[in-house]
Amino acid sequence: MRLLVMDKQWSAAQNQYIILRRYLREQLAVEPSQASVSLFDEIRTAAAHNTILPPHFPLARHNLPDTPTPFVGRDEVLDFLSERLSDPECRLLSLLGPGGIGKTRLALGAAHNQVGIAADGVFFVPLGVELAAAATWDCTCGEIAQRIASGFDELTAYASNVAPCHRNLRAAFDVSWQLLSAGQQKVFSQLSVFRGGFEIAAIEAVVGESLALDILHQLLSALAEKSLLRRAATGRYDLHEQSSNMLPAGWPKNLSWLL
Fold first, then answer.
1. Are 148 and 154 a contacting pair, CB within 8 Å?
2. How many angstroms separate the Cα of 73 from the Cα of each of 81, 83, 101, 106, 223?
3. Which helix (H) or strand (E) holds 238?
4. Does the residue 91 lie in any domain?
């Protein structure tokens, strides 16, 4: 019932309670529990005011970034992922596909659908964590942290079944960089001068008159869709703290060149 309400299927949610009550009376000669009755009353009140019920679990337990644009056209896949994630026997769910096909965006869409449902919260886990986990065989956690702080190339997977683009963070970022258009590469290199995030006015000042504002906003949205840039609900943009390390050798990283 709660899931149906989250999708604003008021009639279906109330009908679900009626079916439950009929089944309990006919098969077990009992009435629905007080919790079910209370939920039904909440649903009727919410339906009258067209308001969503609060989730069964608090929304605060997640680290998912806001999505800059609507995620459309993948409802069937999202439904399948939600079904698999609801199965207690499903301990691991992997999304496979070539680079740039949209695995990260799909994973984020599926993760957002679990907010308020998963009891322990929903957390997004990048490639670095996988590499770090593999390194625990021969390194302490402290040593792993030091290696991560030293650079992208310090944690490398050498197993024969690991794709070259997943052997270390440098390789993963190199693939992402190659998939960017020339305009996206230039704007991303300009963004690398910022530390701790930035507001739209700041990047507009950096770009100056070299790029029309509507084109700039399109490029920023494209970078956000590729998960290279994240926009908070406040409108402020955030970059990964290692974003400047994504730039290939030879690309200027100083503010004087950008201005």
1. yes
2. 14, 18, 14, 11, 20
3. strand 237-238
4. yes
Shared-domain flag, residues 190 and 140: no
Cβ atoms of residues 129 and 166 within 8 Å: no
- In the three-class reduction of DSSP (H, G, I as helix; E, B as strand; rest coil), residue 237 is classed as strand
The span from the first CA to the last CA of the chain, in angstroms, equals 57
Number of domains in the chain: 4
Q: Over the stretch 7-49, which tens digit does the pLDDT of each residue have?
A: 778 888 889 999 999 999 999 999 999 989 998 998 888 888 8
Helix (H) or strand (E) run with residue 44 in it? helix 34-49
Structure tokens at 173: 């970022």
Three-class secondary structure of residue 100 per DSSP = coil
In a domain? residue 72: yes
**What's the pTM?**
0.49
Residue 127 CA to its chain's centroid (Å)? 13
Q: State the Cα–Cα distance between residues 77 and 74, nearest whole angstrom.
A: 5
Read off the pLDDT of residues 165-177 as tens digits, 9 standing for 90 and up: 666 667 777 777 8
Q: Under DSSP, is residue 252 helix (H, G, I), strand (E, B) or coil?
A: coil
